[in-house]
Structures are given as C-alpha cells and as structure tokens.
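Incident log, structure service

09:12 report received: a user says their structure output differs between two submissions of the same chain.
09:20 pulled the input from the user's history:
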Amino acid sequence: MRCAIAPCAALVFAMSVPAFAQDSPRFVEARERMVKEDIAKDGFFGRRGVTDTAVLNAMRTVPRHEFVSESQQNQAYADTPLPIGHGQTISQPYIVALMTELLDVDADDVVLEIGTGSGYQAAVLAEIVEKVFTIEIVEPLAMSAKKRLAELEYDNVETKSGDGYFGWKEHAPYDGIVVTAAASHIPPPLVEQLKPGARMVIPVGPPFGNQQLFLLEKNPDGTVTQRSVLAVRFVPLTRGEAVKDESSE
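09:34 re-ran on a clean worker, output below:
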C-alpha cells in the first residue's frame, strides 16, 4: 500500500511529513463537498448514492486536482468528466466511486484496470486494495500516469502501455477488473482472468452511442452472470498497438 501522498516529488518536508498533509484547504473542502453532494447522496434521476465507507474515504483522500491540467484544477471536484489529452477523459467522480463500489473489493485484493488515463481511478483503487495493475494503450498517457502515481507515492500501482483487451495475464487471476472505456463487447480474455466469485465492471456499447455499464460476476463453475447498472457515456476502448504519437494531444 502507499505510504503517503505528495502533490509533487520536489516537495520534501521534515520528518517525512506527507506532502498531501499540506494540501490547500480549498481542495480539502472541495473533496468533502464532492463526496457529500455528488457521491454519497441520491442525485438526479433517482440514482442511488454510494455508501461503501472505504470508497467514500478514498474519494475524500485522492487529490483529483493532481490528475488534471493546471488550467482545469478549479473544476477538478465538479461532478463532470474532464479532458486529459489524446481524445481521452478523466471520468466524473460519481462514476469512479460507483464503479469502485460495484467491484466490492477488500484490502488484500488485487485488481486490474483497463484504461489508466490520468491514473485517477487507479489511485482510488490503490487506497482500498493491496495491488493495482493498470494498462493504457496511449503510451504518453501511460508514461505520465506512471510518473504522477509515483510522485504521489502510490507504490502499490503498476502500470504498462499496451492493448487492454487481452488483460495482463502474468498477474491473473484478479479479485476485480474495471474497464474505463466502452467496449463493443465483453472481452473474453478479461473474463478468463477473473477469479471465481470476483466481479468486473465494464461499459459496453458503440462509440459515443447508447452504452450500458455492466456488472459481471464469475461463478465457481466459470459461467458469468451479468446485469446492466445504468446508462453511461465513455470514450471507446482503443485496440491495437500502443499509441505513441503525441500529435493528437
């Protein structure tokens, strides 16, 4: 598990005081307001508020403003997705919290994330579980997320650049899998890498079209039960070789 959170690797304090302890009061207050108003209570359209204590504490702790550009930091705790470059986004806080709660993971669990993006979802998971493996196909995003997570001292997160459709077989099976981009179908390799009794949360549907957030649970006999949780809109799951070209940023 991580030892401390630091907004910047260059910030070093006496007696190894976590840099996050020096976080601006306005960000601390903004996170608390975000949890109370957008995550922990019923919102628009009668959606159910997130109730898992570990998830709520993680959302209160992770400095989302560190996972967006400086120009967007004033919007970091609004319940909305934000662009992170390369045609990708950081998901809205409610969706991050909901997907984390749906995984129903514990402190000694190992989780796979497909679609690292800025690293925010991985950081939230890292506050809760023992280990997070995360894959990002856009190499510049994978590299920047790896650097950011290291600076924030999330030592229990391992990142790599690659096609997440095939998962990360070397570390399977997983106690949970979360996919943060919309797939056209549920990838069989991810189902295979899920432990019996474990869950996967994944948005499924056409790019920028009618997508549903699905919760899958793998039964002891290897079969899978699934249900739709709610309508969502995610960027599409990119396939193929790692994207190295930075011109799209």
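09:41 both user submissions now match this output. Likely a transient worker issue. Closing.
09:42 reviewer note: DSSP finds six helices and nine strands in the chain. Residues 14-232 form a domain with the Rossmann fold fold (CATH 3.40.50.150).
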